[in-house]
Amino acid sequence: MLWANFLHLYQPPDQKKYIMDSVVNESYRAVVSILKDNPHARITMSIIGTLLERLDCDAYRDVIDGLREVSSRGQIEFTAGTMFHPFLPKIPDSEIFRQINLNNDVQQYYFKSAYQPHGFYSPEAGYSYRIAEIAHSLGYAWTIVDEIAYSGFLSPRGYDFGHTPGFYSGGLDLQQIVGTVSGKRGKSHPERKYVDYTKLYSIKGLHGFLVHFRERVISDALASGQITSPEQFLNVLKPEMRKDRYLLTGTDGEAYGHHQKGLDHVLGQLYWRKALETITISELPEYFPVSEEVEPIPSTWGTSEDEVRGKNYYARWHHTDNEIHDKQWALTDLAIHAVTGKGGERKKTSDVARRMLDEALYSCHYWWASARPWWSIELIERGARALADVVAYAEGYKGGIREVEKKKVSRGKAAEALRLYQDVVFTAFDWLRTEKVWDLSHLHK
């Protein structure tokens, strides 16, 4: 078994300073230190451009320098990505290209020649064929998606989760399926198609453009804190380790030490013991054949089997039955049109409004409005205000949506932005008052 470990580093552009301090000290510096101490260890990493700017601004240049150093030694393969972490399946092509180009400029500024991306990562592993087409058109060789994109099903495979009682991952309740109480191993359904990790896949119609499938169950076991020691990790993998296959895990980089205390030490011990040979994602074709063309399903890293069946592929960012999401995306479309015009061409708006829009497209505030189970009215309001301020500024109200409200503007895009902003916030409060948030969060396993 070869291990290709993918880490995605991201913080929203308006992240609070004290949280940044914690993330840097608990996770980012730890990951850099682990790689420096284990020169044989190899990973693939996505780090968004705005985070690099923030690390520089907040005097954490040592993290940037450390990442560049270990990458120059061949230990980190950087992927291409986006500047401000927008949810790509929901925004126009012109905005996708812009986010990718902005990100490339920043990456090259900080990482110099160490930034040579072969692959592309779409935030939240948000996949659509259109995104793959764009990545392919820009010269990238592959993208990474969740394994559910292969057939709409997830598999626990032969892993032994006997020591992770109650573990739940993306529609798979392993306490029932794997039988953790008795220590039984997972069982796959023979009538379903699962990803075969002894071979590689290309996307039909894109002339050799590869798609790599993140293995959900193991990735979630790491990200959720179910793995607490290197011994446990290796015991879970043991039934599969002797096979001529690869393990492709993908998690937030912040999982190592910040989200999950101690997981950085587990990672360091695994590398120090050389328990698994590690490779980058771009090295996979050197070991495994590309032998199947596929048409991946629209999906994200969190899409469940039920959501695929219901064609509700992007539920955490735009659920088919979430009126807050509907209003958020109506406000998003309005903000994009206020800056670019209906045809997608640049209007005579200031560079300030353009930059405001770039930042306001970040994916977090849609996620926190899902209530399945994640919810934060503070972050919902913050995101809606950022989008409304874009419209107000583009329409000449330099004081943002607050100025529009004070002046009692009743017509035009600015007035529409104020109405949508208020609808988002008031609906969110209604959900709290009527306990809809409680009901939805408890329906979500």
Automatic annotation (TrEMBL):
* Database matches in SUPFAM superfamilies: Glycoside hydrolase/deacetylase (SSF88713)
Q: Where is the Glycoside hydrolase family 57 N-terminal domain?
A: 28-264
InterPro entries from the UniProt entry: GH57_Enzymes, Glyco_hydro/deAcase_b/a-brl, Glyco_hydro_57_N
Instruction: Kindly indicate whether the keyword ATP-binding belongs to this entry.
Output: no
Molecular-function GO terms, alphabetical: catalytic activity
Record key words, sorted: Carbohydrate metabolism
Coiled-coil spans are: none
A biological-process GO annotation: carbohydrate metabolic process
Top-level taxonomic group: Bacteria
What family is reported?
Belongs to the glycosyl hydrolase 57 family.
What PANTHER family does the record tag this protein with?
ALPHA-AMYLASE-RELATED, ALPHA-AMYLASE-RELATED-RELATED
Report what the protein is called. Answer: Glycoside hydrolase family 57 N-terminal domain-containing protein
